[in-house]
Amino acid sequence: MSRTASAGSVSVTATATPDRVEWDMGDGSSVTCYTAGRPYTSGGTSSCTHTYERASGSGPPYPITATVYWDISWSGGGASGGQTLTRSSESALGVGESQAIVQ
After folding, report:
1. SS3 assignment for the chain
2. What is the model's pTM?
3. What is the average pLDDT value for the chain, to the nearest integer?
4. For residues 22 and 40, what is the distance between their CA atoms, to the nearest angstrom?
């Protein structure tokens, strides 16, 4: 994502590129993803997955936090620079389970 801002004869362009997403899964584990991911498909594979070992059941849902690390670079007006910016979002996920009995 890039944006340019101008004031008089000076323009500055900033570009933000997501580097990674770190997921705190709420069950004591974390997952780091270096791609945007893809929707779930049965039998599909991904380098960015997590499996809960227990359902949340009647207890509270798992508190999940996603933190995105952005690489920011900018240039204009005879100068340039960069930094890393982080943004986090929280949600809660109820995890159910199903079991089959084979006789």
Report:
1. CEEEEEECCEEEEEEEEEEEEEEECCCCCEEEECCCCCCCCCCCCCCCCCCCCCCCCCCCCEEEEEEEEEEEEEEECCEEEEEEEEEEEEEEECCCCCCCCCC
2. 0.75
3. 90
4. 18
